[in-house]
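FORM 12-B: Structure-to-Sequence Request
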């Protein structure tokens, strides 16, 4: 296993801009004719890109569709531990070879796979991604990149060594609206930004619950042991049932009645990363680009009383980021579970307050928007404002995450949320989750991947895998 702490000591102080400059240098090595490296390299730009999808029954489907829409691609291999849940996707790509175990697929099809989509629950992202990287495959991973900080930095180091194209599916920072927002902030539209508030309408799954007693028969088409992957073994439970307290409290609005699978893994610490892990990377990606943020120095959190194994019903998190040259220190706030920041006085009474969004607070004004756009408030100020010149690159793909990744696979510039960026975003949201679990302010040493004031919190930086599983 690489010494990721050593690799990251010099990277700890890099800004987002410098990280992008580093990854641009990697792009020149992305595509090499396969014969040069004896089967481990990737196809020439003119060849068909053979794509394998792992975890296709849920969120993986739209990303497969995005890949399939790019010229010169082929969805050639599909893998899911639940063949019943994945059936519509199997039927959508009838020519694709089907697998249940990603390890078997990568072993048998090693010479045929060029790129891998990882769209499984959070707790298996790292293991699958690492195996693909070891085999020299390009990787697209749904957010967050990993479930633990140690996993994130191990994956980042492996991606650097593999010199392949990577991407995390955070909300784009290179759409025209996102680039315009970055240009406005960097041009001083609201002065120096010292606070940003991000709030989400999540969770859309059960949280704050206790593990249900007993066990249920595992469906014939579902491999529960493989779904658990590196997580500790526990009995399989199927559904909560509409008469269960968890479902009653949700007013029956959750999209799935499952205890763990599908979808509801997100509310369990062993498998998911809660509302913050689900949506934080979306809210932070453009924000990080606009403010040139790197690693935070501290994180604080408050939440509803959480059960030992489940994420809380609601939480508030605050990260403190150091000054970056002439840019001042910034505090970024997060709210979920129905908690929101105060409505700003600059917002007109006639305009609705969104149930999720980002609010940038500057010395000279405020910008209200969503994950990748924003406008000065009140509207009268925006109407009198002249947009700055378009100096930042824009992506015009119909599906930006997949389009940028396919371009990078073919030797183009790195995707905008490659693993250097996606790994940093994962670190930040996971720091927030650790602060939620500890309920106190924590001081972070990014060069050594440790908290300096709480040894108990350091237990969550790297968590053990069960026997038979490793990075």
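FORM 12-B RESPONSE
SEQUENCE OUT:
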């Amino acid at each position: 296993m690489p010494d990721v702490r050593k690799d990251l000591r010099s990277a700890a102080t890099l800004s987002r801009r410098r990280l992008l400059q580093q990854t641009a240098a990697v792009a020149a090595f992305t595509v090499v004719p396969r014969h040069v490296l004896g089967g481990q390299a990737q196809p020439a730009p003119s060849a068909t890109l053979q794509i394998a999808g792992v975890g296709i029954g849920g969120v993986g489907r739209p990303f497969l569709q995005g890949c399939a829409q790019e010229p010169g691609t082929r969805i050639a291999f599909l893998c899911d531990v639940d063949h019943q849940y994945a059936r519509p996707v199997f039927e959508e790509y009838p020519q694709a070879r089907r697998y249940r175990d990603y390890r078997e697929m990568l072993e048998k099809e090693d010479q045929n796979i060029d790129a891998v989509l990882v769209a499984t629950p959070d707790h298996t992202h790292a293991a699958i991604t690492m195996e693909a990287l070891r085999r020299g495959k390009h990787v697209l991973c749904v957010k967050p990149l990993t479930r633990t900080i140690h996993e994130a930095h191990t994956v980042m180091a492996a991606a650097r060594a593999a010199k392949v194209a990577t991407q995390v599916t955070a909300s784009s920072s290179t759409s025209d609206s996102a680039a315009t927002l970055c240009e406005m902030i960097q041009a001083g539209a609201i002065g120096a930004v010292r606070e940003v508030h991000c709030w989400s309408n999540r969770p859309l799954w059960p949280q704050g619950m206790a593990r249900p007693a007993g066990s249920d028969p595992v469906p014939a088409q579902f491999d529960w042991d493989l779904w658990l992957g590196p997580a500790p073994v526990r009995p399989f439970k199927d559904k909560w049932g509409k008469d269960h307290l968890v479902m009653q409290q949700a007013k029956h609005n959750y999209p799935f009645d499952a205890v763990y699978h599908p979808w509801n893994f997100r509310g369990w610490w062993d498998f998911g990363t809660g509302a913050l892990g689900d949506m934080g990377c979306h809210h932070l990606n453009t924000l990080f680009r606009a403010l040139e943020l790197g690693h935070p120095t501290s994180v604080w959190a408050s939440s509803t009383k959480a059960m030992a194994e489940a994420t809380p019903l609601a939480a508030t998190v605050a990260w403190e980021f150091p000054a970056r040259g002439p840019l001042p220190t910034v505090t970024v706030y997060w709210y979920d579970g129905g908690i929101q920041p105060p409505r700003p006085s600059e917002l007109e009474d006639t305009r609705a307050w969104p149930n999720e969004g980002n609010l940038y607070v500057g010395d000279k004004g405020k910008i209200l928007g969503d994950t990748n756009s924003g406008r000065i408030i009140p509207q009268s100020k925006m109407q009198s404002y002249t947009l700055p010149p378009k100096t930042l690159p824009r992506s015009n793909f119909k599906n930006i995450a997949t389009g940028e990744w396919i371009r990078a696979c073919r030797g183009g510039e790195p995707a905008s949320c490659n693993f250097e960026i996606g790994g940093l975003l994962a670190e930040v949201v996971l720091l927030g989750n650790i602060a939620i679990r500890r309920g106190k302010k924590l001081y972070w040493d990014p060069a050594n991947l440790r908290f300096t004031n709480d040894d108990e919190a350091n237990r969550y930086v790297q968590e053990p895998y069960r026997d038979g599983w490793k990075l």
